[in-house]
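User: Hi! I'm working on a homework problem where we have to compare a predicted structure to a textbook description. Could you give me the structure for the chain below?
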Amino acid sequence: MKYYLSHFLKGILAGLAIGLGGLLYILMTYCFKDSLQDLGKILGSILFSVGLFIVCTFLLSLYTGKIGLIYEEKQSKEFYISLPIMLVGNAIGAFGFGYICFFIFRNTDVYNSALAVANARLVFDSFLDYLSTALKAFLCGVCVYLAVKSFSLNRLKPLGIILLVFFVFLFVYCGFQHCIANMFYFGMANTMNWNTLINLLLVILFNSLGPIVGVVLVKLIKGNK
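Assistant: Happy to help. Predicted structure tokens:
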């Protein structure tokens, strides 16, 4: 029970950390507008990595950071059970922080920036929209696995930090979708509806499958050394 409780509490903290990264992204898109919009997106994508850096440094339980372990080797039964527990913790942390930000910023233009980010993820007008969301979630899963793996292999060393920031920048700037980040965005934008649920289920699924490619890439790189 202590093992599961630890993952649950660390999951909440991980959700908060990713929410912080999401907030930094939104603040940058708010601060840099019009002709400087691209600069704001670049800075926001880089600063988003603060969230994952906190998760990796303090060994918090982030679902998308842990799910890749099941493709590396067989895990214990307790670990498999802990995965949905940490996901619930992540959701509490991300949604909770999101709604705190909603009440803080709801009468400001910062809220409008959050609403724009959230609504961009809730477009499901055709089959291609579902396919696009699934693909963006899958590629995000690849990037998160590579970011976490790079950091763990070079813990708190310059190379590990640089690679973590690079892979996070890549998935955020390209608009790939991360289920925990989306929870924060939806909470801050206060956009809870059926499309929100569809998005989260789809993104969780394909975030979970993306690490398969990451595991293969890491094995190929190690095999060529």
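For your comparison, note the following. The CA atoms of residues 72 and 161 lie 22 Å apart. DSSP finds twelve helices and no strands in the chain. Good luck with the assignment!
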